[in-house]
Amino acid sequence: MVTATATMQYQSSAALLDLNGALERASERYRERLQSVCAELAGRQAIRRPARPDHVRLVGELADSGFRDRQWLVERDGRFIQLTELLYRIVEHADGERDLDELAAVVSQQTGRTVSGGNVATLIERSLGPAGLLVEGAEAGQHALPPARHDPLSVRMRVRMLGPRVIDPIARLLRWLYWPPLLVAMLVVVGLGHLWLYADHGVRQDWLMQVLVEPHKVMLLFGIIAIGGMVHELGHAAALRYGGGQVRGIGVGWYLFYPVFYTDVTDAYRLGRWARVRTDLGGFYFHLLFTFGLIVGYQLTGIDLLLIGAVAINIEVVRQSLPFLRLDGYWTLTDLTGVPDLVSQIGPFVRSLVPATIWPGPRIPRLRRWVAVVFATYIVVTIPLMLTMLIAFLRTLPATLSMMKLAGREQTQLLLLAIRADMPLVALGSLFHLGMLGLIGFGMTMMLGNVGRLVLRLLRSALVTGAGWLARRVLDSMSPNQGYVH
């Protein structure tokens, strides 16, 4: 019994020695790595005459924001970054000519706070430099764009079709449709027209079948919807111009799994809350004006396709009103709350609810109480809904692909028959259907790619979090267990 106990004690001692040796080796490797990182940081050349890169643009103070403290916005490569006044003034006056002390003097004079050149250097090193907002003055012109983070809910593959020089004269002319007396009158007229459509004339169930039976009507219907989409974008442009802003461009892009028009209304962030909301809702207003024109066109011509287009556009208005994706309803909600982009702020908002030791990282500035309640409600509703939509998309994907394959085969056969029978309209309709199937297939491929990237990002984040937890445990084991006496 004594021998067995001694053997166990010897084995335990040997195990402890092995563990201590492993910890010492890990500690040595950690020290070497830490020394190399410190040497690399020390070798970097400090920014002595800071300047803004070409891709950084000052937006200004966020008017009527949902934050308790004043916030300023800077745009970097199409993305907005919120800054305090001190950081914003540093970026504003960094022209590549002033050194750190001169820059500190200008910022101190404008903010009323005493700022030293060392303070400015620290803020640049810790915040503005890593964010890509300031670089050395001599490098400002040729500074490369920072790698853009993939955002599956943003409009991608953008192609600008119209620039400010073309849009601005049109927007200046159309802005008078937002003059309040004329706006109210137009809404009353539009309401009466839609009341006639849905209550008096009614929506016939055979309309959709008529469109599907005649292929050329499908193309005409999509043409009507596309024209309505361009009118929708002009509504945003005219609303922004009425508020005193200017559109940067109108173009086409790809959103989730379908092509869309877009309007760059970045200048709206300079305006107050209700001017921004008017800009968000301007597309709906012009869409309704367009559908009223279709109703009048039906009254004059009797062409049912015009009413079908009006109903389809109204359905699109309802879809875009939902605040869960980055459509007009979403931007209306963000501007009502005064938080520039709710989705991008979900992580910082949740972090602000838990101690920093549990979940370190960027935290959202303090929100007004009612804004925080709306934001929390939005998260509780939106996250489960989007997960449900994603699961439904993945579950129905095999059946959808099978139907697309069958439809593609049938349309190909119809195209060949139409060519042989010398039926150009039928052939053109089949080509259109095949093109639409191709677009849907491309969109679904893009959607799957977005889902894959999201999963990889979550896995990478989980691995990094696990590595950070392990590193903290190793550091704890390396540090002596000591107390602090006050």
Protein architecture, described:
This protein has 486 residues and is mainly alpha-helical. Among the domains are: 1-44; 50-139, Outer Surface Protein A, domain 3; 156-338, no CATH class. The chain contains 14 helices and eight strands. The longest helix has 55 residues, at 424-478. Mean pLDDT is 78; it is low at 1-17, 37-44 and 472-486.
Quick structural overview:
This protein is mostly helical.
Topology:
Elements: H1 2-43, E1 50-51, E2 56-61, E3 72-76, E4 79-83, H2 85-93, H3 100-111, H4 117-128, E5 135-136, E6 156-162, H5 164-174, H6 180-201, H7 207-213, H8 215-242, E7 249-255, E8 258-264, H9 273-301, H10 304-321, H11 328-337, H12 346-351, H13 369-420, H14 424-478
Antiparallel strand pairs: 1-5, 2-3, 3-4, 6-7, 7-8
Keywords for this structure?
single chain, 486 residues, mainly alpha, Outer Surface Protein A, domain 3, 3-stranded antiparallel sheet, 14 helices, 64% helix
Please estimate the helix content: 55-70%
**Which structural category fits the helices and strands?**
mainly alpha
Distance between the termini: 49 Å
Largest sheet: 3 strands, antiparallel
The order of strands across the largest sheet is 2-3-4
Q: What integer value in Å does the Rg equal?
A: 30 Å
Q: Give the overall pLDDT as a whole number.
A: 78
- The proportion of residues in beta strands is 5-15%
Question: How would the global form be characterised?
Answer: globular
Count of helical stretches: 14
What is the count of β-strands?
A: 8
Which stretches are poorly predicted, pLDDT < 50 over at least 5 residues?
A: 1-17, 37-44, 472-486
